[in-house]
Amino acid sequence: MNSHPLPTFRVERDALPALLKAMPKAELHMHIEGSLEPELIFALAQRNGVQLSYPSVEALRAAYAFTDLQSFLDIYYAGASVLLKEADFFDMAWAYLLKAKEDGIVHTELFFDPQTHTERGVPFEVVIKGLTRACEQARTELGVSASLIMCFLRHLSEEDALKTLEEALPYRDLFIGVGLDSSERGHPPEKFARVFARCRELGLHLVAHAGEEGPAQYIINALDILHVERIDHGVRCVEDPALVKRLAEHGTALTVCPLSNIKLCVFDKMEQHNLKTLLDQGLKVTINSDDPAYFGGYLHANFLATFEGLDLDAGHAYTLARNSLEASFVSDEVKAGWIRQLDETFARFAA
Ligand code: ADE
Ligand code: ZN
Asked: pLDDT per residue over 79-111, tens digit each?
């Protein structure tokens, strides 16, 4: 079970937004290509001589009205087409890391989609070097810890994923794990059993998107067949009470993305989101921004919208921040240091 059932804290309601920002936390589910703001898309398009099919920043932003995951992915992949050079990947990641600092994130594990770039002829090396340079600079200049998780696109074949893994191996030390993203329905986890088995042998951390639009069975298969350590999204687990019990007993983290779920119509409105129910059932829930440039906000905006929509309090805030630190892929020693800082922050606000 979750080792820390919802605590209570006496914090003034007015102080909650400041506490949500100040509390040290980790972001564990953010696609770096999903942090490309329309302004940066246009700037990079101009820098690289790429023709966009939207006449202006405003027209592009106006197209961000999604009906489901696929309607978003079509625009998301089009946006990523402006990324060609190492400096483009650096600029994109650096812009996100500055926001992360502002939102009180002490550690972030960034997803990147190499296939989105290599299939356009951008070498893997260009992608990973640009992202790595931004992560290193975040550590030295911002005091923000940042690691990379390479995602396989599930709408492509497992052969393509295996080929991508081969291309990535010379840079094995530059990423900590692998994930599985893109169109979920019709592309179950078991499609990637062999590539995940290989990654497991290599000692990589394993995560996968499951139960965002796909059924609870995809979560079970991600756990049993891919052996993932965290489930990205996972909100459809509630359709299987035995699965909910299993997730709670094992303390398996769910990296939930509230604003994303509303924008992609997984829930109609925030008041209907099941995040509070999941917490009440003892699940190790975390809050994340997924694709912040497309879904209306970065991590703090996700916290604010969720706390308002579901009437959450300081006890929930503590649990969510602590879950994010505990579920991160850093050493126990580093986690303990951040949890001490978290406790100090709450003590300050409760005073
Ligand atoms: N790629 C970027 N965002 C995604 C999401 N929410 N689900 C699946 N794949 C994604
Ligand atoms: Zn995602």
From this structure: 999 999 999 999 999 999 999 999 999 999 999
Full residue range of the structural domain in which residue 180 is found: 13-350
**Which of ligand 1's atoms lies nearest the C-alpha of 260?**
6
Cβ–ligand 1 contact at 213 (below 6 Å) = no
How many domains are there within the chain?
1
Task: Specify if 1 maps to a domain.
Answer: no
CATH number of the domain that 79 lies in? 3.20.20.140
117 is in an annotated binding site: no
The answer to whether position 5 is within a domain reads no
- For ligand 1, say whether the CB of 33 is within 6 Å of any of its atoms: no
Tens digit of each residue's pLDDT (9 = 90 or more) over 325-347: 999 999 999 999 999 999 999 99
Sort strands 284-287 and 205-210 into parallel, antiparallel or unpaired: unpaired
| Closest atom of ligand 1 to CA, residue 264 | 6
Dist CA 324 CA 328 (whole Å)? 6
Q: Where are the strands (E) in the chain, listed by range?
A: 25-31, 105-112, 145-153, 177-181, 205-210, 230-233, 253-256, 284-287
- Name the nearest CA neighbour of 258 among 250, 267, 248, 249: 267
- C-alpha distance across the termini of the chain, in Å: 30
pTM of the model: 0.97
In DSSP terms, 26 is beta-bridged to: 107
4 in a structural domain:
no
pLDDT tens readout for residues 241-250: 999 999 999 9
Report how far ligand 2's centroid is from the alpha carbon of 322 (Å). Answer: 21
DSSP state letter for 290: B
Residue 273 lies in a domain: yes
| Ligand 1 neighbourhood includes 187 CB (under 6 angstroms) | no
> In this structure, what DSSP letter does residue 108 have?
E
